[in-house]
Amino acid sequence: MTDRRLPSPARRTTWGRYTAALGALIAGALTVAPAMAAEPETTHGFLAFGKTTYRVDDAGQTTWTYPANTRDGYQLPDGTLVLTLSRSKRFPGGAVMEVAPDGTEKLLWKGTQSEVNGAQPTDAGTIVLTEAGEAPRLLEIERDDTVLVEFPLVCQKENHHLQTRMARKLKDGTYLVPHLLDFAVVQYDAEGNVLKRFDTTVPGDEDRSIHTWPFTAIRHGDGRTLVCCTNGNRVIDFDADGNVVWQLTNDDLPGPWLQDPCGGQVLPNGNVVITSYAAGRRNVNAPKLFEVTPEKEVVWTHRDGRKVGIHHFQILTTNGERLPGPPMK
Predict the structure, then answer these.
(1) What is the annotated signal peptide range for this record (predicted)?
(2) pLDDT, tens digit, for every residue of 209-225?
(3) What are the angstrom distances between the C-alpha of 271 and each of 34, 116, 201, 299, 304?
(4) Of the candidates 57, 139, 132, 64, the residue with the CA atom closest to the CA atom of residue 103
C-alpha cells in the first residue's frame, strides 16, 4: 500500500524539480529585482539680494554676507560678484560694484539719478544697467565706465521708483526691459527703438486694480519670455508672439506663496525659481524662495525666518553641482 503522505520516486523527482524551480524563481524575485531608490531631495545654494545680501550653501548655511543693501547681483564663474547697490548716503543715486573673490572692491558705476535698477554682466565683459529718474535710461558700459550704448527708456516719468527693474541684454544684441507702471515689458534695439511690447495686464485689470507690474523678464527657450509680476502676484510666460502660454498664481500653490514675486530664474531643467519679496513680513510661514516645474509641482522651498525679503537672487548650485552657463534671471 502506497503511503499517500509521500510521493512515489517518480513523483518525488518531478516534485523536486518543481520546488527547486519555484525556489529559484522566488529567490530571483527577491535578490535580482533592484529596490526602488528614493528620489534625492532637491537642494540649492544661492545668492540673495535685498536689505540683506548673503550667500547660502546647499545645506542652508549662510557662508558670506555683504554690508550693503542690494537690488540685483551676479556671481561670475571665477567667483567675482557684480552687485547693484541701492541708494544710500554713500551712493545717493545707487551704484554698481564689483567685488573680487578676495573682497577687493571696484566701483564700476556711480548712479547719476534717483536709482540704479539692475546691472547685468554680459558675455563680452560689459555691464548693462538702467537708471531711474527724470531721464530714465539704459546704458551698456565697459568696466572702466566708458559708455558704449545709451538711450532713453519709453516709460512714465512721474514715479521714478516704479519706472523699471531688471533690464537684460539678449543674445541678439537687443534689450529686454520691464516697465512697472506701464504694465509692459519692452524690447529695444541698441538705438532705443521699440521692437516689441508684452502687455502684462490680465482680465479684470482694465482699471489697474490688480497691478500686474512686471519686475523681472527672462528670455528662455524658443523665444519665450517669463515675467514675474510683483503686486499682481502672478508669473506669466509669453510665446514669441506675445501670447500667454503659461501662468502661475496662488490658486496653483499650497498657499498664498506669491507675495510680491520680484525675482525669478529659469533653471537648465526648465523649472522656475521665484522669490516673494513680502514673504516673512506678511506671512512668516510662506517660503522666501520656491521652485516649481512646468506642471506647477513644487519641488523645493526655502524659509529662513528673516523678516526682510529677497529682492532678487541667483541660484548657484543644485544638489551640490554648479549650474552651467550664464543664469537666466
Answers:
(1) 1-37
(2) 666 899 999 999 999 99
(3) 29, 29, 24, 9, 22
(4) 64
